[in-house]
Design a protein that fits this description.
Shape: elongated
Largest sheet: 5 strands, parallel
Number of helices: 33
Distance between the termini: 140 Å
Structural class: mainly alpha
């Protein structure tokens, strides 16, 4: 029958019927641990079957590098912490796959082997593995089976138990909490603490957690390897696959990311049916880099997501989704449309202001969620903040972008690419046929447009590439303009056809680049083909057709066909007056360009009449407009050709000052005016001044254009000729 009983103090009353077995555990701690003697609040019980690691004395990780490359400074700081007085927490943070665990593994090995520390390794990637690992640490440091069972069942505070035994360890220790990518896992149970008997090392992707600041942790960013060290990693793993130079090419393509290097080296060293060299592997990477790199996982003995470049980032995106930030996935997919180069934050402002709609994507990205999503990507080291050309930018690793891009659902690819193109289009400087000054700020967008053109070819990306080509040309980067224009034209031909206006725009840009690179005959041929096609497709009075008349005229003039050039200039000017107006900048530009062939034909009276355009430019265009500067330039050159050196001298000096001030001393057009001043000085018999200016011109043109450029070769011939003339003077 039931018996009533009452307990007092530490007493217990148990009542039962039948045969029962009762076991009670009593735990006694020394001074300083009184909190465990008092009744403890019991939190959520761990799930049944919580795993206990097979070892906390051995790092249960994937393949560790035989040689740790580059991290000498970081290892020295960590080594000093391990051998010092203790009580420190050190946090290694960085992008997934950048080698944080490899650094921790190397430090762990040294601490045990060389410094007599007890090495303790816990997988902190999730609550179950952390709890099981930390209880195993307590057992390693002396906790009894009963104590551990009580903690595991939620009857005792597990973290307090672990840290009691760490604080009373008979030996000094190093505790590694690996893959702590969700710091709340450490924070909720109070697992991250300090002890005078040891050092705690945390590896994480989360760079900015308040937990790191709250524990006074020393934070150490871990990034990609320098190129030389990255190449050596490949040579370490696959020494027979190629030269160091070949390894450097592969390392560059993989962005020097340690995880990708390890997988690539493993692939090369474990091939059976094939035996690729590093050069062959480099070529294969251009086909499907992510899938090819991940094939190397077979040689490492690990297929875990965090050991695959195609999956490791998804762990962070899943964590962000779990933190109510699914929009981070959409934002990272947008960034994957662009290159692994700095992206100015200003590019994303139209999204944040709601001017560009992302509601049709999955997950949708609302305007007010852009900032939190961006912060989430930064916190998880998926992107980084950098400064480029004085602008705040975000930057992501190329391998990450490739793998994210490969995982974009097919239904969303076109929509993402279209939005990515619109954002770049809005960010570019104005697309002016006649520039008002040397454009700036476009350089940051060129690699992103190139990637978009390569991965999502179409009318919009080709049009953006043509705009970048024009901006390059106006800035004086003529080789870059030619390369970009040809790539844009080839892409447009494949996806749009040779009759499409955007294809013709790319061909026009190619012709202008050829012109400024002094490939005059080639420029004339392309201009002529483009003009014929534009007249047929767009009509004779279309502004782009008239622009082709102008381009052809300039090329004809430079190959010595001056009469044809004058006729083509007049066709351009007459059409532009009719279509654009007499005061349009393009009309004035074409009138200015007519000065040069008139002087070369010796038509002095017509030249002087045409020079009225200088006053018209001054009246109709804004101050310092480059067309006005060009007018003075062409006028000075015409005066020189006509032998009117005294008049030309002051014009040339003024133009040189204007070009230098507005476009810089190294701009090709500034150097062209420097050439004019040298030739005018020679015409005036000022050989000392002429030769000194010509020598300066040669030196500067070699730096800008290269020693084998046509202009440089011609200038050297002039120098020999002028020096001979100077010596012959009485």
């Amino acid at each position: 029958m039931p018996i009533d009983g009452r307990a007092s103090g530490q007493g217990r009353v148990f009542q039962t019927g039948g045969d029962q077995y009762i076991e009670e555990h009593h735990h006694h701690y020394g001074d300083g641990t009184g909190s465990l003697l008092a009744p403890q609040p019991v939190g959520a019980r761990p799930p049944r079957g919580a795993s206990v690691p097979d070892s906390v004395r051995v790092p249960l990780v994937g393949r560790a590098p035989g040689i740790l490359r580059d991290r000498a400074d970081l290892m020295e700081r960590l080594r000093a912490a391990v051998t010092g007085p203790g009580g420190d927490v050190h946090v290694l943070h960085g992008l997934g796959g950048c080698g944080k665990t490899a650094v921790a593994h190397a430090l762990f090995t040294e601490a045990v082997r060389d410094h007599g520390r007890v090495g303790l390794w816990v997988n902190a990637s999730e609550r179950i593995s952390l709890r099981g690992g930390m209880l195993a640490v307590a057992g390693d440091r002396g906790a009894t089976t009963g104590e551990l069972a009580a903690a595991a069942s939620g009857q005792r505070a597990a973290a307090d138990l672990v840290w009691h035994y760490l604080d009373h360890s008979a030996q000094r220790w190093l505790l590694v909490l690996d893959n702590a990518d969700d710091p709340t896992v450490l924070e909720e149970g109070g697992w991250l603490r300090t002890s005078p008997l040891g050092t705690v090392l945390v590896t994480t992707r989360h760079a900015t957690s308040p937990l790191w600041r709250g524990t006074g942790s020393a934070r150490h960013p871990v990034g990609v390897l320098p190129e030389a060290d990255a190449a050596q990693v490949l040579c370490d793993l696959a020494p027979d696959a190629g030269t160091v130079e070949s390894a450097q090419k592969v390392a560059r393509r993989l962005g020097c990311l340690p995880l990708a290097l390890t997988l690539a080296g493993s692939h090369l060293s474990h091939q059976l049916l094939e035996s690729w060299s590093m050069d062959e592997y480099d070529r294969k990477l251009s086909e499907d880099s992510t899938a090819l790199v991940d094939r190397g996982a077979a040689g490492t003995g690990s297929g875990q997501s965090r050991h695959l470049v195609g999956r490791t980032w998804q762990l962070s995106l899943d964590a962000l989704a779990g933190q109510s930030l699914p929009e981070a996935t959409t934002l990272l997919r947008l960034l994957s449309c662009w290159a692994a180069d700095p992206v100015p934050l200003s590019v994303l402002m139209p999204v944040a202001r709601g001017e560009v709609n992302f509601g049709h994507l999955d997950p949708p990205l609302a305007a007010d969620r852009v900032e939190p999503a961006l912060r989430g990507l930064l916190d998880h080291s998926l992107i980084g903040m950098v400064e480029a050309d004085g602008r705040r930018c975000v930057e992501a690793h190329g391998v990450l972008l490739d793998s994210v891009a490969a995982g974009v659902p097919d239904a969303q690819r076109a929509a993402l690419a279209e939005v990515a193109g619109r954002l770049l289009e809005a960010a570019l400087p104005p697309d002016e046929a006649v520039p008002t000054g040397t454009p700036t700020g476009w350089e940051l967008f060129a690699p992103h447009i190139s990637r978009l053109l390569r991965t999502a070819p179409g009318e919009q990306p080709v049009g953006l590439a043509v705009r970048i080509t024009r901006l390059m040309r106006h800035a004086g980067n003529h080789p870059g303009a030619l390369k970009q224009a040809r790539y844009a034209a080839g892409t447009a031909e494949r996806c749009l056809g040779r009759e499409h206006p955007v294809f013709l725009a790319a061909r026009d840009a190619e012709a202008w680049a050829l012109h400024y690179l002094a490939h005059f005959s080639d420029a004339e041929a392309v201009h002529r083909q483009t003009l014929a096609a534009r007249e047929r497709i767009l009509g004779p009075d279309h502004p782009e057709t008239l622009r082709s008349h102008l381009g052809l005229a300039l090329s004809l003039n430079l190959v010595g066909r001056n009469e044809e050039a004058v006729r083509s200039f007049r066709s351009a000017v007459d059409g532009q007056r009719r279509v654009l107006g007499a005061d349009a900048a393009e009309t004035l530009f074409s009138r200015v360009s007519t000065l040069e062939p008139l002087s070369q034909l010796g038509r002095s009276r017509e030249f002087d009449e045409a020079a009225q355009v200088i006053e018209d430019c001054a009246q109709l265009l804004p101050p310092d407009h480059l067309t006005t500067v060009l007018a003075h330039h062409c006028y000075g050159e015409g005066l020189r050709v006509l032998g009117r050196y005294a008049e030309a001298e002051s014009v040339a000096r003024r133009t040189l000052a204007d070009r230098t001030r507005l476009q810089g001393p190294e701009h090709p057009l500034t150097l062209a005016v420097l050439s004019l001043t040298a030739r005018v000085a020679r015409g005036l018999g000022k050989y000392g001044e002429a030769i000194a200016t010509l020598q300066e011109l040669i030196e500067r043109r070699e730096q800008v254009l290269g020693s084998e450029h046509l202009f440089v070769i011609e200038n050297r011939e002039w120098l020999a000729e002028w020096q001979a003339e100077a010596q012959a003077q009485p």
